[in-house]
Specification:
By secondary structure, the protein is an alpha+beta fold. It has one domain. Strand 4, helix 4 (112-126) and strand 5 form a beta-alpha-beta unit. The termini are far apart. Strands 1, 2, 3, 4, 5, 6, 7 and 8 form an eight-stranded mixed beta sheet that branches. It is 27% helix and 23% strand.
Length: 217
């Protein structure tokens, strides 16, 4: 398994995938803001769901203008790069998420669409196809079978949110993703202890807005 953790290494690898760490951090921050804005009066499942949905939306708002496409086939929400070689899903991870010396898993078991994506990833690797090396351009998109699906894995911990963009290759008997070919460790985002600054998408020539977030009782 390959792990990218040093700043330059992370920046270089993300650039090869057509991504930027600062933009991914903003996506994770927006998810946390949605989560922290919930109260005890919300249904128990809502905070986690709204955080996930907000990150999916933010990921698409970041990448669709760059030519990526949204996909919700079988209710599996992805964003796919212009040539079809790379897809990204969003999921909550366990406490090992964002820790280079630990092996993370998804916090909950996943359904058949995730299982198919993980199986496809491993099959391509077994056939000798490497993970996407560069953000190539082409007039012909690849088939779904040639696509590799990465997961933006996010974990809310005490005082911070840890996250990583990783390529899954196996699932345990409990249905949780538990094996990875490659992990790109993103910087931890502080929460609660200090105000959280979020830069929402703004129309051209409009100022960004900083939002201070404190969890409500």
């Amino acid at each position: 398994m390959q792990i990218h953790v040093e700043n330059h290494d992370v920046e270089t690898r993300l650039a090869q995938l057509g991504l930027e760490e600062d933009q991914l951090a903003q996506i994770v921050k927006r998810g946390y803001v949605a989560f922290a804005s919930c109260t005890l009066n919300d249904p128990p499942l809502y905070p986690g769901f709204t955080a996930w949905a907000t990150m999916v939306r933010a990921l698409r708002e970041y990448l669709l203008p760059e030519g990526w496409e949204r996909c919700d086939d079988n209710n599996y929400s992805l964003v796919i790069n212009p040539v079809g070689t790379l897809a990204i899903a969003v999921a909550t991870g366990d406490g090992a998420t964002g820790c280079k010396d630990a092996q993370p898993t998804t916090r909950s078991s996943k359904g058949p669409s995730t299982a198919e994506a993980v199986t496809s990833n491993q099959l391509q690797l077994d056939l000798g196809f490497p993970p996407v090396e560069v953000a190539v351009s082409s007039n012909e998109a690849t088939s779904e079978e040639q696509r590799m699906t990465w997961i933006l894995l996010v974990h809310r911990a005490l005082g911070e949110v840890r996250c990583e963009l990783s390529l899954p290759t196996s699932m345990g008997e409990d249905g949780r993703v538990d094996g990875w070919r490659e992990r790109i460790i993103l910087g931890a985002i502080p929460t609660d202890l200090d105000p959280l600054e979020v830069t929402p998408p703004s129309p051209p020539d409009q100022p960004d807005i900083d939002v201070d977030v404190k969890r409500r009782a």
